[in-house]
Automatic annotation (TrEMBL):
One of its GO terms (molecular function) is metal ion binding. Belongs to the metallo-dependent hydrolases superfamily. Adenosine and AMP deaminases family. This is adenosine deaminase. InterPro entries: A_deaminase_dom (IPR001365), Ado/ade_deaminase (IPR006330), Metal_Hydrolase (IPR032466). It comes from Cryobacterium psychrotolerans. Residues 21-367 form the Adenosine deaminase domain. PANTHER family: ADENOSINE DEAMINASE. Its EC number is 3.5.4.4. Keywords: Hydrolase, Metal-binding, Nucleotide metabolism, Zinc. GO terms for biological process: adenosine catabolic process; hypoxanthine salvage; inosine biosynthetic process; nucleotide metabolic process. Pfam families: A_deaminase.
Length: 373
């Protein structure tokens, strides 16, 4: 995986997508490591790797992730989390994470990660959060010296198959003044509904902490319903299978009609953002009901119907991708132009876990940046 993103242009040789200001809402810290960094950290930590050649290791991650199964896809994280068990490892990974986002034109990013998965070498939950924040701050300072203004917020994540969600929710609230902007639950979705974590969600609601929930990726409408009504989610992590609640029929002649089910209607009318990740959704089989190619992804259907769609990478290492690349792939598949890409970024600005005034500033920066291209 090349940490210097390739240049992506709009169809017809138009504007550089890389140069456009972007917002990243769904990007996992342990899914965005540089292969060379994994090799170096693994050597010092005594972690065995499939290969110690950085380029070959990057290719290995992509092959392993192309399983069509979320469960198999998640196994690749055993390698990345293994080298993120010390303060030094977390600081470095977080700093490089920011540098890579800035190189991709991101001006605001929310990085999600699960502190409970980084305690095997003696760190406490609080120490892990502090280490990541130290790295994020260092990255912001470093890219700022090069003239790139970027802001990063942490999304503290609990694992849905574990029973630590209330403790992690309390951790998130405890660090909301130190870089944490929201809470997430992730991991194996099927069989682990949001209602298992009601105590955590009740606490977060009491503390007015924003919540996003992975839902509608490896499970369907009931999982999304649980994210919204048990989890009180303000955004849906992926949410792609919400399209199962959209019915398309044929009327007279060649005319078609679309009917939204009650769940889809609720999500659209309340402008609940969908954190769609096109390449990842293909890899995990999240769009299997519609096909196996990007052209089959219901992204465009949801966009045309007025849902608040956003573009995300999910895991840049596993998908060998960047935000610029994801936008380019969508443009190629659906013929999007610069105005469409601007809508996606404004959607992300509106959905960011920031105060209203700061979201408006982000939107202004997006508009100004797109006007200059």
């Amino acid at each position: 995986m090349n940490t210097s993103p390739d240049e992506y242009l709009l169809p017809g040789g138009g504007a550089s997508i890389n140069a456009l200001p972007k917002i990243s809402l769904h990007d996992h810290l342990d899914g965005g490591l540089r292969p060379a960094t994994i090799v170096e950290l693994a050597d010092s930590a005594g972690v065995d790797l499939p290969t110690t050649d950085a380029a070959s290791l990057g290719s290995w991650f992509v092959r392993q992730a192309n399983s069509g199964s979320l469960v198999e896809y998640l196994k690749t994280f055993d390698v990345t989390t293994a080298v993120m068990q010390t303060r030094e490892g977390l600081v470095r990974v977080a700093r490089e994470f920011v540098e890579d986002l800035a190189r991709d034109g991101v001006i605001y990013g929310e990085v999600r990660w699960a502190p409970e998965q980084h305690l095997t070498r003696g760190l406490t939950l609080d120490q892990a959060v502090e280490a990541v924040q130290e790295g994020l701050d260092a990255g912001v300072e470093h890219v700022g010296q090069a003239g790139h203004d970027i802001r990063i917020g942490q999304l503290v994540t609990a694992m849905r198959h574990a029973n630590h969600s209330l403790e992690i929710a309390e951790l998130a609230v405890r660090h909301r003044g130190n870089g944490v902007v929201g809470f997430d639950i992730a991991g194996a979705e099927l069989g682990f509904p949001a209602r298992n974590h009601v105590a955590a969600f009740d606490y977060l609601a009491h503390e007015f902490m924003p919540v996003t929930v992975h839902a509608g990726e490896a499970d369907g409408l009931e999982s999304i319903r649980g994210a919204l009504f048990d989890g009180r989610a303000l955004r849906l992590g992926h949410g792609v299978r919400l399209a199962e609640d959209v019915k398309i029929g044929r009327a007279d002649g060649d005319n078609t009609f679309v009917t939204l089910g009650p769940l889809a209607q609720w999500v659209r009318d309340r402008e609940i953002a969908l954190e769609l990740s096109p390449s990842s959704n293909l890899q995990t089989g999240a769009i299997a009901a519609w096909g196996k190619d990007l052209l089959d992804h219901p992204f465009d259907l949801l966009y045309q119907l007025g849902f608040r769609v956003t573009v995300n990478t999910d895991n840049r290492l596993m998908s060998n991708t960047t935000l610029s690349k994801e936008m380019a792939l969508l443009s190629d598949a659906f013929g999007y132009d610069i105005d469409d890409l601007e809508v996606f970024q404004l959607n992300a600005a509106a959905a960011a876990f920031l105060p209203l005034e700061e979201r408006e500033e982000l939107a202004d920066a997006i508009v100004a940046g797109f006007e200059n291209e």
